[in-house]
Amino acid sequence: MSEPATPPVLTPKHPQGSEAAAHPRRVRSFVVRAGRMGTGQVRALQDLGPRFVLPYCSEPADWDAIFGRQAPRILEIGFGMGQATAAIARARPDVDFVGVEVHEPGVGALLKLIGEGALGNVRILQHDAVEVLEQMVAPATLAGVHIFFPDPWHKKRHHKRRLIQPTLVQLLASRLVPGGVLHCATDWQPYAHQMREVLSAQALLRNTVGQQYGGFAPRPDYRPLTKFEQRGLRLGHGVWDLIFQKI
Question: What DSSP state is assigned to residue 160?
Fold first, then answer.
């Protein structure tokens, strides 16, 4: 696909530091973990970060101006090292993708893949996904949301930290256009069942497979198998996809 024009620089009205000071006890959907940066990731951050990593701002973004076109947009929360994001963006050049990830090694890794694949339809936000959805994404504007393999927080006392909770699902549903799709995937069966329960309780969403397959969808062709997932499948681990559509 042809390279879009360089996107405009967005200046955040409230820097992240002042946001943190204003909301010191806000519950985050992530825990920042230290990670080692490879030389390729560091170089990608330096060379491609200014173009493809967007600053957080506290007002709805002009996505048409950022991408230089009008197109369906899918937001991905927690893209990890970005392999699936890059593969999907490469296969769907007619769709724009906004990846939200707080871990810098993952941001660097996706930037490296963007450069290698000349992917002009991906942008990155290194910020809390809840604040991005609340402030930068207007209601009824997203064609889809992808949440692949979020942290399952295995211990019962940590379940409250799980990303898929009724409040977030309500927010996600409000940002989808009618017919838009929320696609979640996990390899932890107890979390899969909790996800299904929470998503099924949201009145704005319907399960695309209904009661078939226990409510879990077959993996669609557009979601590639990651190396981690392939290893798990070889070891006999299950993977559960949930695909819900905005009514």
Answer: G
Tallying the residues shown for the chain, one arrives at: 247
d(CA 247, CA 243) in angstroms, rounded, equals: 13
Token pair belonging to 136: 């930068």
Active-site residue set: 151
Q: Domain boundaries in the chain?
A: 52-246
pLDDT digits (tens, 9 = 90+) for 144-186: 999 999 999 999 999 999 999 999 999 999 999 999 999 999 9
Give dist(CA 164, CA 152) in Å, integer.
10
CATH classification code of 52-246: 3.40.50.150
- The burial class, CB within 10 Å (0-12 / 13-18 / 19+), for 195 is buried
By the 8 A CB rule, do 168 and 202 touch? no
Let me know: does 84 contact 220? Beta carbons within 8 Å.
Answer: no
* pLDDT at position 24 over 90: no
- Reported as a single tens digit per residue, the pLDDT across 125-149 is 999 999 999 999 999 999 999 999 9
Between β-strands 240-246 and 176-186, what pairing exists: parallel, antiparallel or unpaired?
A: antiparallel
Beta strands in 56-211 (DSSP E): 73-77, 96-100, 122-125, 142-148, 176-186, 205-207
Q: Which two tokens stand for residue 206?
A: 């319907």
Cα–Cα distance between 23 and 225 in angstroms, integer? 38
User: Is residue 172 within 8 Å of residue 181, measured between CB atoms?
Assistant: no
Q: How far is CA 78 from the centre of its chain?
A: 5
Q: Which of 236, 246, 150 is nearest to 205 (CA)?
A: 246
Strand duo 240-246 + 205-207: pairing: antiparallel
